[in-house]
Amino acid sequence: MKYRTNPRLLLVAATTLLLIAHASHAQSQGGDAAQNELSARDECLLESTKTAAPETTIGELRAQCDQIFSETVAAGAPEAPNKRMTPVQIRMFDDQVNYNRNFAISAFQPNYFIGTYSTDPNNEPFSDLPSSEDSLENEEAKFQVSIKAPLWRTMFGTDNDLIASYTSTSWWQVTGNSSAFRETNYQPELFLRHYGGPQFLGGRVVAADIGLNHQSNGRGETLSRSWNRVMGRLYLDYDSIAVGLRAWYRIPEDANSDDNPGMYKYYGYGDVMLAYAPNKNTYTAMVRPGTEKGGLELTWSYPFTKVFRVYAQYWNGYGESLIDYNAHIERVGIGIALNDWLQRR
Predict the structure, then answer these.
(1) Catalytic: 214?
(2) Domain residue spans in the chain?
């Protein structure tokens, strides 16, 4: 893979992350582990009492938490009290708690809103449109909404859930003449998740997914971009580090209706994501190798309230959005997020 890099943008991104890492180093030496010393059962009971109906008995709460606990242990959470859960186990545990509530909708991918600057916006797809869209602004807002919900818990009494998810990512020309939404990618998905697994590549398998994924930009004619995939995911736990391995197979389309037949050159057949949460900071890196080109995304986030996190993102490569799948984009942005892939409490 080859990446063209603007030295000033890369210097700003690298310097910012180094300063953040240096400032937060002292926090990683202690303090956060104590917040995770409650056993999974104790934490579940505390959380459940906040949302339970007044008539719910302690016995009913305990039975509910025992079910959640057994499913979380399948993903590798410690059974004994006062054993620290890893960030990925915390994420799995929080999901199980949420799934037992009414209208169980929870975060899937990060939900964020950032202001960005791109050195090389891709004007080519809009060259035949009215002049108001001929020249794109370098400044742009980018935001993502990503949720999931269980459709069938513990299928047939097993450690398997059927889950539906929806993610939309938008690029908004806020400072342009018409403040248009340049691109929005819609991504519904249906997948089966199995919790737990063996040691693999030196880490513990905490979950594995297999399902169907559709992604499109909802446009027609020359701007239409879409594809359907069979997608598999594997999540590995290395204590403060989690690794997500994704692989996909594109469902073939008729050659006459295929809007983007060469996507494999830029998206390839999978990607690798690494998330590192040594303390309240979360760092991620995603590499997506195409067969000819590739894409790289780096992010950092840190909570500044109980609800919001400051969120920074750097992108370099191909395939940031469907409309730009065959165009090189370098972008840096900063804003706020509601969640990240991993986060310590």
Answers:
(1) yes
(2) 7-24+110-337, 31-99
